[in-house]
Amino acid sequence: MKPIQHNSPKQLIAMEPEGDKRQKPRLDGQLGLTFSGIDATDMFLDTGIVTDLCQDGIGARTERSLKPGMELALFIEHSDSEDHFCIPEARVVWVSGNSFGISIQTMKTEDRERLHRLFLSAGRRPQQYHN
Fold this sequence. Notes:
The chain is mainly β. The chain has one helix and nine strands. The protein has one helix spanning 109-121, and strands spanning 4-8, 11-14, 26-39, 42-54, 57-61, 71-77, 84-96, 99-104, 126-127. Strands 3-4-5-8-7-6 form a six-stranded antiparallel β-barrel. It has a two-stranded antiparallel sheet with strand order 1-2. The two termini are 23 Å apart. The model is unreliable at 1-22 and 124-131 (pLDDT under 50).
């Protein structure tokens, strides 16, 4: 079981055993997101916004209540196309209010590079996070 960090009554964050990964540079952005998963026994499809991207994860926001450990399939919208960038295997690693972090489970190097280019082409710039 992962330790839980409690910052306030409204904020619970599941921490990965190896520590906070937000020390890595991220690309700041805002791209549309559609995702699917299973909540208890029901399959769902919902929407949100991708807010940032790093080498092995994505930050996002949604109105849906998510929990760390949930497995999701992600579909990130291209701003100039009706096609979506698909990430079939991802896991929620932390939740804070409506924001959440997603670990990309499996992705080919060329797909990671394509996703990175998608953010860059949308005019996003690298941001450095320090907690």
